């Protein structure tokens, strides 16, 4: 997820500089990294084999990580829409507000993942 924050910054910089090719690449790469994070989490849940109703801690784990997965999914859909807008030529340096808002949202998603990663996956 940290790498996706860098690629999102690249996308914002590309839009500010009217560099459409790099904007396409950065937005697509950020979305791919978000999808990879969802895939990694799905693998983790399949690997641990913990049923959701095993205990209160298991339920809490699924709720916290599931809520974050919803945040990531919303971000990936938003990035897909931004990519379509960029392909249509609507995101330029004069109309950069949606890309900046998506970047702020994506940075929040990355920050939440950092807290979850340290609090759940590392500290347990």
UniProtKB/TrEMBL annotation:
The chain crosses the membrane at residues 24-46, 58-84, 104-123. The keyword Mitochondrion does not apply. One of its GO terms (molecular function) is cytochrome-c oxidase activity. The keyword Nucleus does not apply. InterPro entries: Cyt_c/ubiquinol_Oxase_su3, Cyt_c_oxidase-like_su3, Cyt_c_oxidase_su3-like_sf, Cyt_c_oxidase_su3_a-hlx. Residues 1-124 form the Heme-copper oxidase subunit III family profile domain. GO terms for cellular component: plasma membrane. Its main location: membrane. Keywords: Cell membrane, Membrane, Transmembrane, Transmembrane helix. One of its GO terms (biological process) is aerobic electron transport chain. It is found in: Cell membrane. It is a multi-pass membrane protein. Belongs to the cytochrome c oxidase subunit 3 family. PANTHER family: CYTOCHROME BO(3) UBIQUINOL OXIDASE SUBUNIT 3, CYTOCHROME C OXIDASE SUBUNIT III. This is Heme-copper oxidase subunit III family profile domain-containing protein. It comes from marine metagenome.
């Amino acid at each position: 997820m940290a790498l996706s924050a860098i690629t999102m910054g690249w996308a914002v910089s590309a839009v500010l500089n009217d560099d459409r090719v790099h904007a396409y690449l950065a937005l697509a790469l950020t979305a791919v990294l978000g999808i990879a994070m969802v895939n990694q989490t799905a693998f983790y849940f399949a690997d641990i084999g913990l049923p959701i109703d095993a205990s209160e801690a298991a339920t809490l784990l699924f709720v916290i990580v599931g809520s974050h997965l919803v945040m990531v999914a919303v971000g990936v859909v938003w990035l897909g829409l931004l990519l379509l807008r960029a392909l249509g030529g609507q995101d330029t340096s004069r109309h950069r507000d949606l890309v900046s808002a998506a970047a702020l949202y994506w940075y929040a998603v990355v920050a939440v993942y950092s807290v979850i990663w340290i609090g759940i996956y590392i500290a347990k």
